[in-house]
Amino acid sequence: MTTTIEAPRTQPAAKKRTNWEKWGWIYMRASGVLLVVLIFGHLFSNLMVGDGVHAIDFAFVGGKLSSPFWKVWDLLMLWLALIHGANGMRTIVNDYVSKPGVAKALKVALFLAAALLILLGTLVVFTFDPCPAGADPSLVASFCTAK
């Protein structure tokens, strides 16, 4: 009796599927490196430049969030950090939760929490008014005109 083993590449190719775990792994490395740059830049600009931590007040934040550069900087930091953290928690759920129903519920909760925080944080960055009407002039940014 002769047994013939077919060459491994003669079988029909399986459908190509996206390897989400691989892309999640790559995202974690890339976002981690970018977050280090963003966070240390944020800390340096807030704590080391000017009067340091003593200068941080409503006017300081208003001045930063009136600049498109700092809006993009803070938005990138927000999005990358929340997605990075949610993806890390998803990995922990995959590693330690054995019941599929519980794992799915936790992942849905993680997704919803991250999506809600991203939405709210983005709204704050884009709708923040550094010159609110009726505010004490000594508390608002120096570029605000009296209303």
TrEMBL record:
Subcellular location: Cell inner membrane
Highest taxon of source: Bacteria
Keyword hit for Lipid biosynthesis: no
Keywords: Cell inner membrane, Cell membrane, Electron transport, Heme, Iron, Membrane, Metal-binding, Transmembrane, Transmembrane helix, Transport, Tricarboxylic acid cycle
Pfam families according to UniProt: Sdh_cyt
Transmembrane as UniProt keyword: yes
Membrane topology of the entry: Multi-pass membrane protein
Main location class: membrane
Transmembrane segments: 26-49, 69-87, 108-128
Gene3D superfamilies: Fumarate reductase/succinate dehydrogenase, transmembrane subunit (1.20.1300.10)
Coiled-coil segments on the chain, per record: none
Cofactors that this protein relies on: heme
Pathway listed: Carbohydrate metabolism; tricarboxylic acid cycle
Job of this protein: Membrane-anchoring subunit of succinate dehydrogenase (SDH).
Annotated protein name in UniProt: Succinate dehydrogenase hydrophobic membrane anchor subunit
